[in-house]
Specification:
The complex is a heterodimer of chains A (269) and B (357).
Chain A (H helix, E strand, L loop, with lengths): L3 H29 L10 H6 L2 H34 L3 H9 L6 H12 L4 H8 L11 H26 L2 H9 L4 H12 L1 H16 L3 H5 L8 H12 L2 H23 L9
Helix pairs in contact in A: 1-13, 3-7, 3-10, 7-10, 8-9, 10-13, 12-13
Chain B lengths: L1 H28 L6 E7 L5 H11 L2 E7 L2 H10 L6 E2 L3 H9 L33 E13 L24 E4 L2 H11 L9 H14 L3 E5 L3 H6 L5 E5 H10 L4 E3 L5 E9 L7 H12 L1 H11 L6 H6 L2 H4 L8 H4 L2 E2 L5 H17 L3
Parallel strand pairs in B: 1-2, 1-3, 5-6, 5-7, 9-10
Antiparallel strand pairs in B: 4-7, 4-8, 4-9
Helix pairs in contact in B: 5-6, 5-14, 6-14
The chains are: A mainly alpha (269), B alpha/beta (357).
Chain lengths: 269, 357
């Protein structure tokens, strides 16, 4: 039932999508088919399937998985307890505020905190252990990334928990379900959409983190993002950089498909 | 809806105020495009007081931007979004920018202070007769280390880096040319090698270094070395000088097998809108006083003889920073490898990075 007016109202959005969504992706695909001298080739795609890039893809996925897992592990209970507090909007605000600070600035702060003479090591020394260099390990990398992503995970989960009708929980308890069963069979399935949204918001950027890999992990962790940056800025091999970007887009589509399916297999409708 | 409109109006008002303030500020120091000079330089690579002095002497307003690799610099100049009037790339990049026709030839009559430069650094192969470039600083690549923490190692040979006692302590710079070049040097090959077998064995040799590598980072290494958080680092001579200025325990060595000798040079990119101002700036930087002041601040080696005469005797005779001409014979200048081999170096560097676990 589209009227002419509503069709023409759509026009700016169609234009926007054409210029800022479709055109850039088309350009990335186009560049991925060019070699260093501007000739058409599939060489880049072949190169992607060499051991270096495959290993890098695997390690990117592994670290993105770890980051998402720990972020979820911390965020779900946090969001859950937030909804139970008295001034929940205020608490939520306090959790969101750190995300107003520039990401790079926060990363630099961690260099100081984790340093050999930083506060954490000072604390360890008080406890009687030898100070350890915590920077440039994969643990510190995962820690900092989790810290950065937590607000983005909490928000969607908080919203879905907040929308949950509390009478459903009371009903489950009345009918004899234990607290755990209620959570597993009522609360969790009904907030699954929030969790999925959170995973998408964390996992996809985590695949292509690049500044933190250098500053905190000292390039001991290499992600696809690092490789794209190198190809564009250092090697100036736009073809290869675009090819990696194409694969990144493909991975993202797959993740969206997996996490996007609604209620399939869910027990509660 | 009402609060949404209010918020929107608030954002627009704040943005407008900021834009007005920004305009007012830039109008205060420079009137039009002709009176500004945009300089594109490496981070921490100039004494900011000199920029102020230049502004005061000439009335030209300076806009200062920094980059962290030659390649990133060239990409930005190529895109042409900003009208850079001065850039300070390294020698191999000047070769490349010449090929791509990104440079404006210099008018030597407007740079009388050229006479202050050591003739050794003029008319080099990457730029005959200094048609496009004037030397800014030069230096080497070597190893900065803390002698009290490394036992008997003195890094007179690259081989010392592979010493098992250095497990997880070595820091490297995040640059393919530097690291692969070091691998090639340690085997006695040229750091401009275009021989696939040599490159392969250099990479294999580097992969054996992996257990000793703590991290591969950029400028962040400076505070780590100063605070004794790092023990051994591959770095540029000037960066080492900075660290040693803050932390007197540190020492610097250029291994005898050879290393890189590099020159950073002032050029005027094709994007320039103020070519006269750019010449004035180059001449100003080549002046004996400002050259000495800048070298003191930055810590790299100056090619300016007149400036060296004004500097601390101890600094300019220190062979770690001002190697004698014989010592310079083991050093090699980077050549432009061309896109294929630059890509190859980067692939190998990536492979090396992947081996660090």
């Amino acid at each position: 039932m589209q009227t002419k007016a509503s069709k023409s109202a759509l026009f700016p959005y169609v234009l926007w999508i054409a210029f800022f969504v479709i055109a850039p992706i088309a350009l990335v695909v186009y560049y991925s088919l060019l070699d260093l001298h501007g000739n058409f080739t599939l060489e880049n795609y072949k190169a992607f399937f060499t051991s270096v890039y495959l290993k890098m893809t695997l390690s990117s996925f592994w670290y993105a998985f770890l980051i998402t897992f720990f972020t979820l592990l911390i965020s779900y209970p946090t969001a859950y307890f937030l909804t139970k507090t008295k001034h929940k909007q205020l608490w939520l605000l306090l959790i969101i505020i750190p995300s107003w600070i520039n990401l790079l600035l926060k990363t630099y702060a961690f260099i100081g905190i984790f340093g050999l003479y930083g506060p954490i090591n000072a604390f360890i020394e008080v406890l009687g252990f030898d100070p350890k260099q915590m920077l440039f390990t994969d643990i510190s990398f995962v820690f900092v990334s989790v810290y950065i992503f937590i607000p983005f995970m909490i928000l969607p989960i908080f919203n879905s928990l907040d929308r949950l009708n509390p009478t459903l929980v009371y009903a489950a308890r009345d009918l004899g379900a234990s607290a755990f069963t209620t959570f597993r069979r009522v609360v969790l399935p009904l907030t699954m959409d929030g969790v999925k949204a959170g995973i998408q918001v964390v996992f996809i950027p985590a695949l292509s983190l690049f500044m933190i890999t250098r500053l905190i992990a000292g390039n001991r962790v290499i992600t696809l993002g690092t490789a794209i940056e190198q190809q564009f800025l250092v090697t100036q091999n736009w073809g290869m950089g675009s090819t990696i970007a194409v694969f990144l887009i493909l991975f993202m589509v797959i993740i969206m498909l997996i996490t996007g399916q609604k209620n399939k297999g869910g027990r509660v409708r | 809806m009402k609060s949404l409109i209010q918020a929107t109006i608030a954002i627009i008002v704040v943005t407008a105020l900021l834009m007005y303030a920004g305009n007012a500020m830039s109008a205060g120091s420079g009137k039009s495009g002709k009176d500004t000079l945009t300089i594109f330089n490496w981070g921490e690579y100039i004494d900011p007081d000199l920029l102020k002095q230049f502004e005061k002497e000439t009335g030209i307003h300076v806009i200062y931007e920094t980059f962290d690799s030659n390649e990133a610099m060239m990409t930005k100049v190529q895109q042409g979004g900003t009208a850079y009037d001065i850039a300070i790339p390294s020698e191999y990049m000047i070769e490349k920018m010449k090929e791509e026709d990104l440079l404006i030839p210099l008018d030597h009559s407007k740079i009388p202070n050229m006479k202050n430069i050591d003739p050794y650094f003029l008319d080099l192969p990457f730029d005959d007769n200094n048609k496009y470039s004037v030397p800014y600083f030069w230096g080497t690549v070597g190893i900065v280390y803390n002698p009290s923490l490394v036992g008997d190692l003195d890094f007179s040979s690259w081989e010392d880096l592979w010493d098992p006692s250095l497990k997880r302590t070595v820091f490297l710079v995040d640059g393919a040319r530097e690291v692969i070049g070091m691998g090639l040097n340690s085997l006695g090959y040229s750091l401009n090698s275009l021989d696939n077998n040599e490159l392969r064995s250099a990479t294999d040799k580097l992969i054996k270094l992996a257990p000793n590598v703590k991290a591969i980072i950029g400028d962040e290494i400076t505070p780590l070395m100063i605070n004794n958080e790092a023990t051994v680092a591959l770095t540029w001579s000037g960066q080492a000088a900075d660290m040693m200025y803050e932390n007197e325990d540190l020492d610097f060595a250029v291994p005898e097998e050879g290393s890189n000798l590099w020159f950073d040079n002032m050029v005027i990119p094709k994007t320039s809108k103020n070519i006269d101002g750019a010449h004035a700036f180059i001449n100003f930087m080549l002046d004996a006083d400002s050259g000495a002041q800048n070298a003191d601040f930055v810590g790299y080696s100056t090619p300016n003889i007149a400036a060296m005469a004004l500097m601390d005797e101890e600094v300019v005779t220190d062979e770690r920073y001002y190697p004698t001409e014989e010592q310079r014979d083991t050093l090699e200048v980077y050549k432009n490898l061309g896109p294929d081999y630059l890509g190859k170096y980067n692939e190998l560097f990536l492979e090396f990075k992947m081996s660090i676990r």
